[in-house]
Write a structure and sequence with these properties.
- The complex is a heterodimer of chains A (about 180) and B (about 300).
- With about 180 residues, chain A is mainly alpha-helical.
- Chain A is built from 6 helices and no strands.
- In chain A, helix 1 packs antiparallel against helix 2, helix 1 (about 1-20) runs parallel beside helix 6 and helix 2 runs antiparallel to helix 5.
- Chain A is globular.
- Chain B contains 12 helices and 11 strands.
- In chain B, helix 2 runs antiparallel to helix 3, helix 5 (about 80-100) crosses helix 12 (about 285-295) and helix 9 runs antiparallel to helix 10.
- Chain B is of the alpha/beta class.
- In chain B, the strands form 3 sheets. A 7-stranded mixed β-sheet of chain B has the order 7-6-5-8-9-11-10, sandwiched between helices. Chain B has a two-stranded antiparallel sheet with strand order 1-2. Chain B has a two-stranded antiparallel sheet with strand order 3-4.
- Classes of the chains: A mainly alpha (about 180), B alpha/beta (about 300).
Chain lengths: ~180, ~300
């Protein structure tokens, strides 16, 4: 359960990273397709990043098929990460649902008091989850795997921004000229 | 931050208001202006602005303005600014028609930037026929971009590099969003005075409160990439005018119109209504306007 939950959270986080990267760059009024492209592209990228993490885990576990302790160590270390990131994701999801359903005042409240601060809090929360995993883990391989996965997912927005800058503002296929 | 200090973008472009010709801006002058007002954060950001031979690089500053305004538009989308203006404009247009206004209603957005409000209102289509939306700004790069975006999306609105108050075809209604706090002292009174012959004006701006500067700082750092956007967004909240000052300036400048505030009440926990509006109109428009506002009429002040 823990690996699946972490994978889902990782994919969702990269999808949101792609949305944040796309936001504030396209001044057109109708941006539905633009944001959909970003979210789909981000989600697919997230899946690729999680697949890389799974491959890394498989490579570590495959070195010695009888090393059950390493597998258990990975699962144990993933549990606090899943709790930390899961509670954060649930809070963001609830605020987004309220924002989507609410009138202008509720939207303002959600934006100002919840969504904006949580965007900032995410930067701090990512290393907190990593440290929690490290404190729980007993094996260096587990610590390395956690670091690898967190770096991949946590740097997604920065990577998207850098690629976009190199491509003159266009990141995903079909993106319009920005300025 | 200094409530009387400028925003960085206030200092980066110098346009002759009569000829609309752009004048070069010395980077040192920008830095001196910020340092003189104790704007250390602003000065730190301004030091990295692109320059050429001691003057700000105009092409790069133009590109920066477009990026900053695109980020600002994202914020306005999140705060539903277009819808907020629509809620006021639709009843106002109804009141104008009810009081016999014939022909096209010209709505002019003062300091429109990338023209988000004009383009959004045109796209939403709720203003009906017989309305012409025009956006005015001194910044040519922003107006060219606004025109391009409107053309891309097939929106029938116009953008002009012009003084909104001296257009050949005068405005019926002036509107703006986030512009009022750029005018200080008697400049604010003069801003309203230039609208005294219009049928009405609707200006939305940040509502000052004890929470606004902190909230604005958090929000702009979270949502914006450009350091200039982060600084100026925060400074906007710091120097936003209280409703009483806006009301006083509007009444001094455009005393012939009935003037009131929309969402002007100061709340104990000021995070639900982060914007206030200054609403001015001919006296004969007030009754039909208030009637057409429906439940939103409760958000209006008492008027003149």
């Amino acid at each position: 359960m823990t690996p699946v939950l972490l994978a889902v959270l990782g994919v969702a986080d990269v999808g949101f990273s792609a949305f944040r990267d796309a936001a504030g760059r396209n001044p057109r009024i109708e941006k539905g397709a633009y944001y959909r492209r970003a979210i789909v592209g981000g989600t697919l990228s997230g899946m690729a990043m999680i697949a890389l993490s799974v491959l890394a885990a498989a490579a570590l576990l495959g070195r010695d098929a009888s090393d059950v302790a390493l597998r258990e160590d990975m699962l144990r270390a993933g549990t606090p990460m899943a709790w930390i990131y899961g509670v954060f994701a649930a809070t963001v999801s609830a605020a987004l649902a309220a924002w989507a359903m609410g009138e202008s005042e509720l939207r303002t409240l959600m934006s100002v008091a919840v969504l904006g601060p949580l965007t900032l809090a995410r930067h701090a929360l990512i290393p907190v989850g990593l440290v929690a995993a490290w404190l729980t883990a007993e094996r260096p391989e587990t610590c390395a795997l956690a670091l690898f996965a967190v770096l991949l997912v946590g740097s997604a927005e920065r990577v998207f921004g850098a690629i976009r800058a190199r491509r003159g503002g266009r990141l995903w296929p079909g993106d319009p000229e920005m300025h | 931050m200094n409530p009387d200090g400028p925003e960085i973008t206030d200092l980066l472009i110098d346009v002759d208001p009569d000829t609309m010709q752009r004048r070069p801006v010395s980077k040192q002058a920008v830095l001196r202006a910020l340092e003189r007002d104790g704007m250390r954060w602003g000065a730190r950001v301004a030091r990295s602005l692109p320059e050429r031979d001691g003057h700000l690089d105009e092409a790069q500053i133009d590109a920066l303005f477009v990026r900053v305004h695109a980020e600002m538009q994202r914020l306005w989308e999140e705060f539903l600014q277009g819808d907020r203006m629509r809620q006021l404009l639709v009843p106002l247009l109804g009141a104008l028609r009810e009081r016999g206004h014939e022909g096209t209603v010209r709505i002019v957005d003062v300091g429109c930037g990338l023209g988000y409000l004009v383009r959004w209102l045109t796209a939403c289509g709720d203003l009906g026929a017989g309305v012409h939306l025009v956006g005015c700004d001194y910044n040519r790069a922003l107006i060219e971009a606004a025109s391009r975006y409107a053309k891309d999306e097939g929106l029938s609105c116009d953008f002009r590099v012009a003084n909104a108050f001296t257009l050949e075809e005068p405005a019926t209604v002036f509107i703006s969003t986030g512009v009022l706090h750029h005018f200080r002292g008697e400049g604010l009174v003069e801003f309203f005075a230039q609208q005294r012959h219009a049928a009405a004006f609707l200006h939305l701006d940040i509502k000052p409160s004890y929470l606004a500067p902190l909230g604005s700082l958090l929000f702009h750092v979270a949502r914006m990439r450009e350091p200039v956007s982060q600084h100026d967004g925060t400074q906007s909240a710091v120097r936003a005018h209280p409703g009483t000052r806006l009301l006083d300036a509007a009444r001094r400048g455009a005393g012939g119109l009935e003037i009131t505030l929309f969402d002007g009440d100061v709340e104990a926990v000021p995070i639900l209504r982060t914007m206030l509006g200054v609403v001015g109109m001919r006296a004969d428009l007030r009754e039909p306007f208030v009637r057409r506002l429906g439940p939103n009429a409760a958000r209006l002040g008492d008027g003149a």
